[in-house]
TrEMBL record:
One of its GO terms (molecular function) is transmembrane transporter activity. InterPro entries: ECF_trnsprt_substrate-spec. This is ECF transporter S component. It comes from Ktedonosporobacter rubrisoli. Keywords: Membrane, Transmembrane, Transmembrane helix. The chain crosses the membrane at residues 6-30, 42-68, 80-100, 107-130, 142-165.
């Protein structure tokens, strides 16, 4: 772990906590079977894409613990359902991005965002069915929402990853108009 990756992990963990604590940001109440749409997984996806699997897993751990601690349903009061699937979001996002970035970095970010979000949905719902919290038929009405969440995650991932890489390569600079000694501060 480099200092840069530790800082990225900290910033993404802070964003994850803010999304989870501020009502309506990370878990958006909607009138569907799922009860909430989520944007909480976006920092975890971004962590995997821009900083690698360890940062992605750490951000997913923060997401999972927050989900577990704030749970109001028996489904998410189970740490296996609330925490374990979230660890794989950053890992899958990293693996997909790493595998595809040689072709095109934007395409890799889009696919990583989509599959990272899909990983969250598939694993949470799969464990919910496997552990008896949901009958298999209850998953079907959630699929359209999951697809929309995955598309939104894909769009946000490519935008945020692009911003990160622009800043990282320092392509955006303020012009120096005066020597440092002449500045008033």
């Amino acid at each position: 772990m480099t200092t840069e990756r530790i800082v990225i992990a900290g910033v993404l963990a802070a964003i994850t906590i803010i999304l989870g604590v501020v009502p309506g940001l990370g878990f958006i109440p909607i009138p569907t079977m799922a009860g909430n749409a989520t944007t909480e997984h976006i920092p975890t996806i971004l962590g995997g894409v821009v900083a690698g699997p360890v940062v992605g897993i750490f951000s997913g751990l923060v997401f999972g613990i927050l989900s577990f601690l704030r749970a109001t349903t028996p489904l998410f009061k189970d740490p296996i359902v609330a925490i374990v699937p979230r660890l794989f979001i950053g890992l899958v996002s990293w693996a997909v991005f790493a595998g595809l970035k040689g072709l095109n970095r934007d395409v890799a970010a889009v696919v990583a965002g989509f599959l990272g979000s899909a990983t969250n949905t598939v694993l949470v719902l799969g464990l919910a069915v496997a552990r008896g919290y949901l009958p298999p038929v209850a998953v079907l009405p959630i699929i359209p929402q999951a697809v929309v969440e995955s598309v939104i995650a894909a769009i946000l991932t490519v935008i945020l990853a692009r911003i990160f890489y622009i800043l990282e390569s320092r392509l955006v600079r303020a012009p120096d108009t005066k020597p440092r000694e002449e500045l008033p501060y």
